[in-house]
Design goal:
Chains A, B: It catalyses: GTP + H2O = 7,8-dihydroneopterin 3'-triphosphate + formate + H(+). 2 copies of one chain form a homodimer. Chain A is an alpha+beta fold. The first copy, chain A, has 17 helices and 14 strands. Among the domains of chain A are: 179 residues, GTP Cyclohydrolase I, domain 2 (2-Layer Sandwich); 147 residues, GTP cyclohydrolase I, C-terminal domain/NADPH-dependent 7-cyano-7-deazaguanine reductase, N-terminal domain (GTP Cyclohydrolase I, domain 2). The first copy, chain A, has a 5-stranded mixed sheet with strand order 5-2-3-6-7. Chain A is globular. Chains A and B meet through helix 2, helix 6, strand 2, helix 7 and helix 9 of A and helix 2, strand 1, helix 6, strand 2 and helix 7 of B.
Chain lengths: 473, 473
């Protein structure tokens, strides 16, 4: 072993020690006596197998603790398997004398209680990717009892923290609340959003997302003529929520990986390359206590691997040098007419991307804005070339900071006067893990060349992004 | 003891046993080895003293476990006192080789990383009421290291979960991140909202809320000419966030209870009535490990008691019977002209209210919509009378379900044909406790008389609310 290698090893060991405490977030530990060790032990090798299958070096710094992190996040995201409705609702039923004074449900006052806009996250049982939920829960009190409002949210969250299909989620929340509160009826409505395949992410608005609406109802909410159901829908409309739930009572396959999947039989042809990864995902399901042979989970490991493989290491390098300059880009003009002082600054804005966070194996997605100086010929680089560049640096295991810099450096290599890149992204790992900051959004900047030394050039580019921000993410 | 009393006692004991598990929410237990018992023991008697001071019967069903619940929620809401920045950040610093290739901060790429729209809740150190925060955190990496994105959110949350002043919160987040990440600089910007005094809650839009903006910056973000600070503000503008932070560097007293407070010297006159409550709140501060003599906390117990006393039991009963009918209410007309089929249905919409949740001693606030049938005289009841009714039933320790029914019954007592009430409210207890569902909003309905039997009358009233919903909460 050479001196250089020894030094590298020593540094790695030191880093490993420094990282010992990593991710021991108080918020994530949960209150349970975690029987984690054994189960996580089964999950970590599975994640390592996935990394290897992606062509990654599992020992490189950014990935070294990814198996531990993924195992922990996955266990946290499926904690609903280890919770019970009884523990949540029991004791949170309050006698509400007034409700009892008259006969009939809700004390004869035709009343109902609705908690609207409960934001949840769940995991799609078809592909193991997270999906987001806007959940609305109502019930009609009976027997002179009301339930603590937060319990409607907690019970919904409990079922969301399992591998789910949106309609089953609605049904499970409805029947669990009905059984535990024993009201005159329960109404559940939810809108769900599933990330599309990376290639279907649309520019600017992320409109490629798959959206469905689902409902489930019991007791007095049932039946075509239930006026309580009409009232429930009216209360949702007050918040701008228009439920189109007529045709979604069945278990519709909504997962985009189901409609684009490789037929199961074809997987045998790919056996050598992907079989290890599929087995690894199957063992992850087993360690959650799930049955991989359950009808809805058949093919799930294959679909998750199919998704991951979209982000596998690509050893081809992409350079802009070879690209021809097209005419398809116009110089930035200040709003209200008048060319900018920096007439030679060009920009390509709102280029969509979807990457996979190398720390958590979860997607982050958003838009890239690129600014550069043209070469004096007055011609810019065609947008499609930038989109290819973004795809190359985005569609892999990444971190946003590195991706931003890499794109900036690639652009700088052909636009020698200067390059500037802004990336705006939502991180599923910020949402579906313990932090659960649903609306938080991360922006990164990299600035090179003249943009670094000329603040007005930088400001000019940022203004061009701002002018189009209304139509953005 | 009579047979009736014995039966009552037996029922109470049974209820107590059934409630034994109450609020043992897994989500709330936290991962810490809680040294809770002794401290909560000090807090629960304090809460009981507050209930007695409010003229309440602390043994009535809705309040029986309120001391336990408040103690737990208060401890959870101030868990930041028992967390350390080191534990959160340590080990989440990732070497990012590319950032190191060039000299200067962010590897010479003029870059920064900004997490925008982190939603937080904190407690105002001036009055102990929760306030909400939209937090934005940026930093410029240095030394070839980036920090896990979620840590920016977690560190911010840690300081928010203490008794705070908005500007100090911004400063503490900034300096803690600077010390722990050792970047080239940290930028923190936040917008904060504080609930106003109940009497200042405005109709429809809740515009009475006190809003302030605060910023704190270190390193390369400092100075008037910092272009990195300009970039940071530009990235916020992309999300529609316009920071007006020029004049908020000082610790401005923003708490509405500070500007309307009873001078401290006057409290001696009230000694007999409120002194016990003030002592109780002081003991709550002590049990958090806070120093009640810290400058910023002087007067806090008095202010919190002053707030609570706005919701004290009022033994006067309010009836609409005595009110004269005015001309100030017009019959509901369908949008697009044309009177409704139910010409005699009248409505008073968006009556603001602020109540105090009897389960958590935290405010819930929103609007009340009232529908009723006029008496045939063609004259309605003046809006001010309804507002007085809402104030009477709202401004006390309440639960939303009961308040809805009580208002409906009061209206029904004068409008014998029918009465219908919808209450829409945000509950601080749904937000600042463990659930943290910031956008969730609860709607309750009570329906009496002809509204119960005539679905079209009910639909007509709900439509009138919907038609004005755009301008509502």
């Amino acid at each position: 072993m050479g001196a250089l290698e020894e030094a590298h090893l020593a540094a790695a060991v030191a880093a490993a020690c420094a990282c010992e405490e990593e991710e021991d977030d108080l918020e994530l530990l949960g209150g349970e006596a975690e029987p984690a060790a054994a189960e996580d032990d089964a999950m970590e090798p599975a994640v390592r197998a996935l990394l290897v299958g992606l062509g990654e070096d599992e020992r490189r710094e950014g990935l070294r603790r990814t198996p531990k992190r993924v195992a922990k996040a996955f266990r946290d995201g499926t904690r609903g398997y280890r919770q019970k409705v009884k523990d949540i609702v029991q004791g949170a039923l309050f006698p509400e004398v007034g409700v009892d004074k008259r006969t009939g449900s809700a004390g004869g006052t035709g009343g109902q209680v609705v908690v609207r806009d409960i934001e949840l996250f769940s995991y799609c049982e078809s592909c193991l990717l997270p999906f987001s939920i806007q959940c609305h829960v109502g019930y009609v009190p009976s027997g002179g009892r009301v339930v603590g409002l937060s319990k409607l949210s907690r019970v919904s969250d409990m079922f969301a923290k399992r591998l789910q299909n949106p309609q089953r989620l609605a049904n499970e929340v409805c029947s669990a609340l009905h059984a535990s509160i024993q009201p005159a009826g329960v109404a559940v409505a939810m809108q769900c959003w599933h990330i599309p395949l990376p290639e279907n992410l649309e520019c600017k608005t992320l409109q490629g997302w798959i959206k469905t609406s689902h409902a489930s109802r019991s007791g007095v909410f049932e039946g075509e003529s239930s006026t309580l159901w009409s009232d429930f829908l009216a209360l949702l409309k007050f918040r701008g929520i228009d439920m189109d739930v007529g045709n979604h009572s069945a278990y519709i396959p909504w997962c985009p990986l189901r409609s684009h999947e490789v037929p199961l039989s074809n997987w045998h042809c790919k056996k050598n390359s992907n079989n290890g990864m599929v087995s690894a995902v199957t063992s992850m399901l087993l360690s959650l206590g799930e049955d991989p042979l359950r009808k809805e989970l058949l093919g799930t490991p294959q679909r998750y691997v199919q998704w991951l493989m979209k982000f596998r290491v690509c050893n081809v390098d992409v350079k802009l040098n070879g690209f021809t300059l097209g005419n398809n880009v116009s110089a930035y003009e200040r709003p209200g007419g008048g060319t900018a002082d920096h007439g030679s600054i060009r920009s390509e804005l709102h280029l969509p991307f979807c990457a996979q966070c190398e720390h958590h194996l979860l997607p982050f997605y958003g838009v890239v804005h690129i600014g550069y100086f043209d070469d004096g010929s007055g011609e810019g680089i065609d947008r499609s070339h930038f989109q290819a560049l973004v795809h190359f640096y985005g569609c892999k295991l990444q971190v946003q900071e590195r991706m931003t810099r890499q794109i900036a450096e690639a652009v700088y290599s052909v636009s020698h006067n200067g390059a500037m890149v802004v990336v705006e992204a939502y991180h599923s790992c910020m949402i579906s893990r313990g932090v659960e900051k649903i609306r938080s959004n991360t922006a990164t900047i990299a600035v090179l060349g003249q943009f670094l030394t000329d603040p007005s050039a930088k400001a000019c580019f940022l203004q061009s992004v701002l002018d189009t921000a209304g139509s953005a993410v």
